């Protein structure tokens, strides 16, 4: 125990020393990231003149540690900012064809005052295709729509694709057609440092350190005017503030560490006498304090749900501006499409849309579905279950194969009752939604649940785990006459379940909520007229609370506010 105490003391002392050192360095580092090298215009002009006889000849410049400030200057002066990605030439900066063609104008704008502003979106997995990425790309679109002078930089680690490929994927998956000329992709090389497999021990701490390094790498390639962090890597905030001295906006889907995690650990049997559990608790507690410290650098914190808002508010008490902005769920187009469908034509189908990851609890869905089939005795019509989700990497694809083996070989579910669809097109997903009656979300404490909103907007009745986003924000009683939320439980918009495998399951839950297996039966018993009424209420709720237009309006308010904050700090 003494060696452990010495280690903790040494670690905290080293951390304090580093923080003080960085605070001192922060007094002059911001100017280094944006100040331009001497005679920049002369050097650029000479390079362009040497290539003036052949516009296809590309001048590639290297200003060493000044490359970040030069790239920033080029982006602000460019006819097409997107050309200043680092995809091809890495740290070096190549002058684009359009700026070579209009040499005098381009050179004249370098280092001059401009109305253009660069919003840096830090999202290392921007091509993952999940709900978090939908928020990212709608925020990017809204930022571009807010002001024609806004430029969006995307810091990503998706080095296996190009920026154009990513935008095509965004259009295919989310139907967002973005102004590609004002989007600059900065490809990061150290994303592996934030992957859990990179840190088999002390995973949280390792990923935190990795995110700091990744944030610094992003700043060293191109420094923005505003830092917008949309994926959940908060430990880089102090360094962004110290090194770049720019406002920070966050969109938090769920806290990195929460009081729920601490309480769950503390309530484990034998906690008081188990040294390992006590050490782990202290480790998490220390991590929570660092997380709180990181949050103190945030200017505007936005959250996706009531559950997340409550946690962030308690973790970041010094962050004054915390607000809820529900994610964009494209409810307008989904409702428009579902209104063209005759509900009588919907098939006896249940859909589950979720990335193929263990925490989405596909295994619970499959085992509950199997239990329903086995106990049904042909009393009720067995629906077809369709599992739809994206896969990020080979690990996710292997997980899908394990689920198939579990379903077809162990549970003996017949193929006619179950179908897997991975990485399907958005249009195909919509067609499946429009032809189905029910949608499942089985995750415990799902921070929000965009898929649940998509169910409701498409006219499906959600079958959800009774926790977090689905319980408090989405599947709420709705007065279809007043078009507002109500306390009248008779005007329900979906059904809830609990399971014994829930970390916080209690005897009260067993008496209040059905199991998922029983919920399948309850759903099957609903008559057509009742289904239509529930569907109608759900669509109204989804359109009012979770439309893309509602998100864009709220995001524009954030952009107005952050510019005001910046002007006051100048």
UniProtKB/TrEMBL annotation:
Gene Ontology MF term list: GDP-Man:Man(3)GlcNAc(2)-PP-Dol alpha-1,2-mannosyltransferase activity
Topology with respect to the bilayer: Single-pass membrane protein
Entry protein name: GDP-Man:Man(3)GlcNAc(2)-PP-Dol alpha-1,2-mannosyltransferase
Catalytic reaction(s) noted: an alpha-D-Man-(1->3)-[alpha-D-Man-(1->6)]-beta-D-Man-(1->4)-beta-D-GlcNAc-(1->4)-alpha-D-GlcNAc-diphospho-di-trans,poly-cis-dolichol + 2 GDP-alpha-D-mannose = an alpha-D-Man-(1->2)-alpha-D-Man-(1->2)-alpha-D-Man-(1->3)-[alpha-D-Man-(1->6)]-beta-D-Man-(1->4)-beta-D-GlcNAc-(1->4)-alpha-D-GlcNAc-diphospho-di-trans,poly-cis-dolichol + 2 GDP + 2 H(+)
Gene that this polypeptide is encoded by: ALG11
EC number(s) recorded for this UniProt protein: 2.4.1.131
Domain Glycosyl transferase family residue range list: 339-479
InterPro entries according to UniProt: ALG11, ALG11_N, Glyco_trans_1
Top-level EC class as recorded in UniProt: transferase
KW RNA-binding (keyword) present: no
Functional description taken from the UniProt entry: GDP-Man:Man(3)GlcNAc(2)-PP-Dol alpha-1,2-mannosyltransferase that operates in the biosynthetic pathway of dolichol-linked oligosaccharides, the glycan precursors employed in protein asparagine (N)-glycosylation. The assembly of dolichol-linked oligosaccharides begins on the cytosolic side of the endoplasmic reticulum membrane and finishes in its lumen. The sequential addition of sugars to dolichol pyrophosphate produces dolichol-linked oligosaccharides containing fourteen sugars, including two GlcNAcs, nine mannoses and three glucoses.
Annotated localization: Endoplasmic reticulum membrane
């Amino acid at each position: 125990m003494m060696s452990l105490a010495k280690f903790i003391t040494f670690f905290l002392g080293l951390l304090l020393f580093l923080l003080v050192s960085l605070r001192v360095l922060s007094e002059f580092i911001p100017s280094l990231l944006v100040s331009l090298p001497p005679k920049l215009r002369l050097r650029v002009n000479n390079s362009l003149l040497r290539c003036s006889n052949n516009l296809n000849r590309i001048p590639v410049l290297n200003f060493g540690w000044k490359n970040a400030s030069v790239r920033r200057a080029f982006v602000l002066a460019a006819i097409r900012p997107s050309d200043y990605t680092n995809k091809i030439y890495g740290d070096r900066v190549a002058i684009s064809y359009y700026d070579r063609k209009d040499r005098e104008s381009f050179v004249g704008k370098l280092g001059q005052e401009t109305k253009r502003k660069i919003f840096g979106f830090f999202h290392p997995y921007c091509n993952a295709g999940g709900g978090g990425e939908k928020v990212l790309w709608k925020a990017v679109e809204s930022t571009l729509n807010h002001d024609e002078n806004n430029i969006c930089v995307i810091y990503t680690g998706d080095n296996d694709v190009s920026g154009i490929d990513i935008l095509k994927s965004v259009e295919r998956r989310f139907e967002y057609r973005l102004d590609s000329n004002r989007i600059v992709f900065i490809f990061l090389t150290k994303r592996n440092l934030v992957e859990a497999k990179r840190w088999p021990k002390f995973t949280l701490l390792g990923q935190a350190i990795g995110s700091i390094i990744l944030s610094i790498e992003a700043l060293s390639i191109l420094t923005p005017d505003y830092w917008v962090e949309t994926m959940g890597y908060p430990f880089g905030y102090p360094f962004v503030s110290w090194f770049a001295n720019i406002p920070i906006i966050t969109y938090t889907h769920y806290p990195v560490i929460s009081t729920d995690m601490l309480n769950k650990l503390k309530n484990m049997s034998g906690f008081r006498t188990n040294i390992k559990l006590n050490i782990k608790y202290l480790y998490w507690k220390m991590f929570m304090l660092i997380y709180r410290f990181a949050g103190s650098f945030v200017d505007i914190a936005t959250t996706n749900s009531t559950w997340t808002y409550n946690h962030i508010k308690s973790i970041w008490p010094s962050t004054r501006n915390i607000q809820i902005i529900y994610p964009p769920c494209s409810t307008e187009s989904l409702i428009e499409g579902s209104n063209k469908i005759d509900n009588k034509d919907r098939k006896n189908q249940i859909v589950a849309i979720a990335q193929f990851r263990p925490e989405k609890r596909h295994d619970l869905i499959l085992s509950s579905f199997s239990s329903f089939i086995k106990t049904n005795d042909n009393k009720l019509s067995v629906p077809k279950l369709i599992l739809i989700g994206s896969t990020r990497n080979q690990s996710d694809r292997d997980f899908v194969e394990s689920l198939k083996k579990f379903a077809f070989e162990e549970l003996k579910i017949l193929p006619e009752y179950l179908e897997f669809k991975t990485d399907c097109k958005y249009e195909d997903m919509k067609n499946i939604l429009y032809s189905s009656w029910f949608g499942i979300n089985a995750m415990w404490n799902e921070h929000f649940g965009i898929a649940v909103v998509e169910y409701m907007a498409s006219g499906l009745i959600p079958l959800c785990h009774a926790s977090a986003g689905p319980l408090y924000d989405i599947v709420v009683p709705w007065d279809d006459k007043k078009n507002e939320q109500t306390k009248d439980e008779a005007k329900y918009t979906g059904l809830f379940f609990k399971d014994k495998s829930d970390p916080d399951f209690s005897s009260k839950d067993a008496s209040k909520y059905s199991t998922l297996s029983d919920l399948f039966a309850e759903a099957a018993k609903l008559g057509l007229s009742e289904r239509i009424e529930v569907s109608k209420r759900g669509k109204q709720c989804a359109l009012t609370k979770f439309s893309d237009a509602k998100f864009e309006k709220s995001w524009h308010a954030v952009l107005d506010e952050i510019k005001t904050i910046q002007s006051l700090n100048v």
